[in-house]
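User: Show me sequence and structure for the first protein, then do the same for the second.

Assistant: Starting with the first protein.
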Amino acid sequence: MTDIHVIFKAEKVSQRDWQIKCHCPEGKIDYVTRFLDEQSTQNWLKTEHRAHWLKVRGYLPLQELHTASGVNKLPTEDFEDMSLVYSSAAKR
């Protein structure tokens, strides 16, 4: 799974027809349709349906991203930094 961010926006299609426009990575746009009103879209976004939608498409929900194993750990192995840094002399 990837940790790329997906942006959700509710849109009114007609009087009693709402959808959620999902702006996915790499410019892909997907839709979740068949909502009766804006409140229904907001409820969908706050429930496990949103998390399931993300998982099915290979994206991690934000709350799982923060609790993923090793997310706050730095590597512990020792290594020698062998990179060289050269200062640039001012040209005259």
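Switching to the second protein now.
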Amino acid sequence: MSGAREVVLDRIRSALGPGAAVPDVSRAYRGAGAPGGGFAAPAAKQPAPPPVPYSVGDDVLHPSFGEGVVTGVEPGAVVVVRFAGDGAERKLMADYAPLKKVA
């Protein structure tokens, strides 16, 4: 065992009292089986999602719902559109919705 680890285990043994069993913490220290021991590396940062091509106030056209106006843009590339035909406000995924900007 390494020196620092042995010191910590000795402190645990003395705190628990004589004859107390000390649990094996070697797998926890090694990151539950990480090769080479040590703690697991932190997760890499995720790249920022691409910007949504719509902004509040844009006039858009949907093949089924007709003309509408973007009333909001939410995280996850969700576009909120109020359609003129029925006055309904719908949340659409910008990457999949067949929306076109109207000039």
